[in-house]
Amino acid sequence: MTDTTLKDGSKLGSGVRRRISLPAIPLSVALAIAWIIAMLVVAALAEKIAPYGYTQLDLRNRLSAPGNVAHWLGTDELGRDVLSRLLVSIRISLLIAFGATAISAVVGTTLGFLAAHFRGLVEQLVLMLTDFQASMPFLIMALAVLAFFGNSLPLLIGLMGLFGWERYARIARGLAISANAQGYAAAVRQLGARPSRIYLRHILPNIASTLIVSTTLVFPEVILMESGLSFLGLGVQPPMTSLGNMVGYGREYLTRAPWIMLAPATTIVVTTLAVSVIGDWLRDKLDPTLQ
Amino acid sequence: MGRYFAIRIGRAALTIVLVVTFAFVVLRLSGDPALMILGPEAPPEVLAAFRKAWGLDDPIWFQYLDYFGAIAKGELGRSMRDGRPAIELVLERIPATLALTVPAFLLKVALGIPAGIYAALHRGSAIDRAVMMTAVAGFTVPSFVLALLLVLVFAVQLGWLPSGGQDSWRHAILPIATLSLGGAAVLARFTRSAMLEVLGQPYIRTASAKGVPWRMVVTSHALPNAAIPTVTILGFMVGTLIAGAVVVESVFAWPGVGRLLVVAVANRDLAVVQCILLLVALTMVTSNLIVDFLYGFLDPRLRAKGAHA
Amino acid sequence: MSAPLVEVSAISRSYSMRSGMFGRATAVHAVDGVSLSIPKGETLGLVGESGSGKSTTGRIVLGLEPPDRGDVRFDGKPMAALGTQAWRTQRARMQMIFQDPLGALDRRLPVASQIREPLDIHGIGTVAEREDRVRELLRAVELTPAHGARYPGALSGGQRQRIVLARALATKPDFLVCDEPVSALDVSIQAQVVNLLCDLQARLSLTLLFISHDLRVIRQISTIVAVMYLGRIVEIGSADDLFARPEHPYTQALVSASPAPGRRSAGRIVLSGDPPNPAARPNGCAFHPRCPRALARCASEVPVLSAIGDGRQVACHLVTGPHVQTRDAA
Q1: Which residues between 21 and 50 in chain C have a beta carbon less than 8 angstroms from any beta carbon of chain B?
Q2: Among the three residues C122, C140, C172, which one is the final residue of a domain in this structure?
Q3: Most buried residue among A141, B42, C51, C248 by CB atoms closer than 10 A?
Q4: Could you list the residue ranges that cross the membrane (chain A) (predicted)?
Q5: Dihedral angle of Cα A148, A150, A152, A158, to the nearest 10 degrees
Q6: Residue range A139-163, pLDDT digits in tens
Q7: ipTM reported for the complex, 2 dp
Q8: Rounded to two decimals, what is the model's pTM?
Q9: Would you call A135 and B285 a contact, using CB atoms and an 8 Å cutoff?
Q10: Is C246 exposed, middle or buried (0-12, 13-18, 19+ CB in 10 A)?
Q11: Where do the domains of chain B lie, and which CATH numbers do they carry?
């Protein structure tokens, strides 16, 4: 889908068809893409490329500084290899971020389409929920849910999946309504197509570029939200580890071993930065109307 | 205009109803509310009395209405840890939170808005680029990382400031800096784009083409119009003052509402969590209402339309 | 004339329109008591200015929106309710050609797959048969299979409209509604597309409702012509007869403004007054403020559409009232 989007990127309703020449990628975007690919490779192969098990203790080498041959990024208070823990943390954090972004995109787009299709009461209900979601700080809602339900990885992914759905819902609703009012969707409807065909085969591919741009806005925020919760000790629980979780535990050793906290913190910052850079670039290319 | 405000107030009330409903649903889904609120050590006769008092044997919609009634009367349960009313615990933490968030908010406005306006008026200059880069950093550097970096530099390396606690005004500097820096960058970026949007409008070009001095164009045409979207985001920032304090208060061991929330969540002290949830909702809704009212007065189009209605 | 395929009786449709966010809602009568009957294999040309309700009439006739009052019968049976399975099945028998072919096509799909889409939707034929049918349809609209592989953006306006036509014909429908099908095209292309429509109509014995503001195009394709003004039909009759002897003053003005071979362009009637506004329809005959020959009663009494012989019907006090003999005045 990304492929057709790039080849055929045209804005809904504007009469102009824009083609994107793929080679003209700015250096910053190329670096950002390279970083994200590296992160994906790390996430996929974390256990294979990690020099040590992420819970493996080395009590003789506790809090050893980065740069030594045995432990490139040093060790933590229990002598666990920071690099190995970092690789596994990247996997967990990306798993949560991707899972959550996928859930929120699917939930939001579906609700937006339902609102556009049924209008009336359904639409009012969806709009009320999006208003509610947008007006309550998500961190507080997430903390409340965690307090009531306790914690587990599936719950955490599901909870994070409730983040940002309202943006997809608004976009999908708005674009579907305008597509239904005039143009290709109306044309296909009068051919006798069922709603599922109209929405999935026609409207969805046409608004995909806008939805993808929204994804690049939601994804880094999910990473920040999850790492924030984990940092507070309320997200990913030990012995499992995530980027925020590592920063949280590293803060205890800020004075003696700042590297424990700096390695995952840098990873968080660079990853969110990379996604934002790619998102800005895609937005300029695909959809200049989005803010 | 009356209709406009009626709709806003209705919406605000609806948000509160939704938050209470959210708390009710989550509370019911998570287990026996009597046990949850009173704790597992509560004697059986107390549990029975609680169930009777809260009408837990009644049909669910009746309980739902009852729950509203209880909250309206301020009966928000007792803390599991020390048995004090949750609302008391929360209220006594509010001054500490305000001591951080109010100065941080003022600092955000004092730094962010002038920087944004300057950057917009000097588009492409070194300061503009610096503002934009800082804004990106403000978005991508999470507050807990910023907080730890500030501690690392100013407390650990330089030893100028304490790294945590609430003993003197010097303890408040790093938390306030953490809270305001990121927000100021975001606000600067927002103000800049609002200004640029206004400066691109035909009426600005018309005004400057008519020979109105540029300074006048900016102060009497551009700024008032750019103020409208900026007020909206400021209102949103006021609403998130408590939420924003959660992380910072935890890092700096600052005894405010945010830290109370984190501790309450960790201990599953549900009465306290529920109380803070409602407090945040009330803050959000109130600040949104204030923004809507301001908006109504700031936006002449709304005023004009209201006059006809 | 054979039995009617489409029978429209006294349909009305109004919309509520708000002025601004806080304004009072006013009802706009887009269509008001329109009756039509289209015999099998004939083409009815529906002509009128913008705002006359001709497009709304087309959409109601096709079942794309329900009338507030009145009903539409297709092939002797009432139209299925909008959005039901029966309605969707019925779409295979009736199709629409849109004014804006680029808007009517999905820009992200090659046009061949869009021509095939009705066959996929209605489950007609095997995959191989559908592919054959697409090639056949492309030939029928005078395009080549190579065009089928392109995207709508890579085709010209005339080619796109041919694609829309091919898609509409895929399920071998009996009835087509063409809503200003050529007005977005260059004049030189217009003639080609209209000729193609005429050929296909004859070859496939289609029944057409052809909506246009352009009298030249209507004249070329229609066998019956209906003239609409502010939601009502003011005159209807066989095409040759109506163009030769327009009865209603509005029709006379339209015909005089449209040059035709073998007729002197002198004596053109220029209409004065405001163009029609559906939100503020004048009392009585809606045309009276612009009518060069309006009588006092035209401002108060609504003229009824009445037969005057030869299948002609006119809604005008001058024609149906005591002054029937005024036709020579034009």
Answers
A1: 21-23
A2: C172
A3: C248
A4: 20-46, 94-118, 138-163, 203-224, 259-282
A5: 10
A6: 888 888 887 777 788 888 888 888 8
A7: 0.81
A8: 0.79
A9: yes
A10: buried
A11: 2-72 (no CATH), 90-308 (1.10.3720.10)
